[in-house]
Amino acid sequence: VAGDEKELRAPICCILGHVDAGKTKLLDCIRGTNVQGREAGGITQQIGATYLPAENIRDRTSLKAETAIKVPGLLVIDTPGHESFSKMRSRGLSMCDIAVVVVDITKGLEKQTVESLHLLRCHNVSFIVALNKVDRLYGWKECTNAPIVEALKKQSDDVKSEYKWRLTKVVTEFKENGFNTAPYYENNKKKKVVNIVPTSAESGEGVPDLLLLLVRWLPDIITDKLAYDDTIECTVLEVNEHKDLGTTVDVVLINGVLRQGDQVIVCTKQGPVTTIIRDLLTPHPMKELKAKGAYKHHKEVRAAQGVKIVARVSFISIAVPYEHGIHCQTIHCLFVFLQGLQYAMAGTSLIVVKPGDDLRQAEAAAMQEIDMAISTTDENEKGTTTQEVSSIMTCKEGIYVQASSVGTLEAIIAHLKSSSVDIPVYDWNLGPVYKQDVMKASAMLKRKEEYAVILAFDVKVMPEASALAAESGLKIITADTVYRLVNIYTEHIKGLKE
Ligand code: GTP
Ligand code: MG
Ligand code: NA
């Protein structure tokens, strides 16, 4: 890096906003992908991470080749807008440097927009407003991917005046929530007044403006935050059961470098779990980390980046020490470690143990974090709770929930607990439904029949499990959205009562 200019890492940018404001579609427009079109029920149910390299961003803006972009790229975190996913939203925001709040221009500020503003204030994060769906203004003349000022000039007087009053309404609503905002092209107090960028995720107007603000203007106001640092800062985004890779831990690497073979500590509900990074995977640039597509394998990954960590020990590496005469006990311990990983708590730190570091001390730090994660959830939860599980509360009588990731599990449980639904949870698991799960859930057949159910989200139900459930009278419900899953259950209960 030349002169005394500090090396900057990619800013991490969280996309927040109410359901259907167009968060995912806006990202699709930037990436040239169609993630939104393939989402079940058209809703985002999983937090996502996409790396946008500076060159790709340049292609989408009017920046000349010689104009420098100070950051190597942008790591964008997509969040769900639905109410039950509030934990994913706050988790996404807690690891971000900046945010984009997407507002539907035809609707103005909505419930989860206001919730997002509250979060932004708590975390003291700077943000930009994308005032999306301008193409919905009556009579809008499409100007594909044009800068917004240019596109606005081309509109009829009617469109211009509709735009103006809708914009004024949104500015007033922000004011009511304690934020001064202004369209960015008229904003000469950019540090104090929040920028609004009108956009269309459908035809791309304003998208170059949004990208320019993110890579040219924002890094200037948060330069210190973005100074690259070797000290590793890494947060667990999600834990997944992958059909080929086993348990994988998706992380956001905020600072530093992760390497294959690094010894890492993961915070789990059962305590710190120490393991070795076997493989580091990232999606291809401009592609989603959560998409079940092709991954790139890396020996090392530098911040900021969304990374899938494969921690499963291959069969061979378990068999080899055995042949060398290591006790069975050692092998047993290894299995416990691997199983423990699935209880990794999303939102906690991944700690890297460097050669020469004190492992005990590192584990103590992890333990402290676990205690904190648990105590903050304790404060929020009341009722007849008997057991604390990865920030998920369970009861003696209730249904059994199974999901592909911790985040969706939390969302299902949040929805079950909401006042309109109010269904207790007996136990939960991640990954495919096996016979064991059916056996556990079957405990309710004797206690309370209406709870003799497994809600299975985005996971396979093994044939033996289905067979056992059918035999014993346990119902397994599957659906592709959290809301449908719970609706089917409530319909089932009505059926039982009638
Ligand atoms: P959740 O993730 O479920 O909270 O929604 P979201 O904010 O990601 O919104 P999404 O991208 O799913 O878009 C919702 C709907 O609005 C989809 O049908 C999109 O095609 C549509 N949409 C999004 N942006 C625009 C836009 O700029 N113009 C128009 N006309 N439609 C849009
Ligand atoms: Mg979405
Ligand atoms: Na949506």
Protein architecture, described:
This is Eukaryotic translation initiation factor 5B. The chain is α/β, with parallel strands linked by helices. The protein has 16 helices and 23 strands. Helix 2 (54-60) crosses helix 7 (207-221) and helix 13 runs parallel beside helix 15.
Outline: globular
Number of strands: 23
What's the mean pLDDT score? 88
**How does the helix and strand content classify structurally?**
alpha/beta
Q: Can you list the ligands bound to this structure?
A: guanosine-5'-triphosphate, magnesium ion, sodium ion
Residue fraction in strands: 15-25%
Number of helices: 16
Name the assembly state: single chain
Instruction: Report helical residue fraction.
Output: 25-40%
Radius of gyration, rounded?
24 Å
Q: In what order do the strands lie side by side in the largest sheet?
A: 2-3-1-4-5-7-6
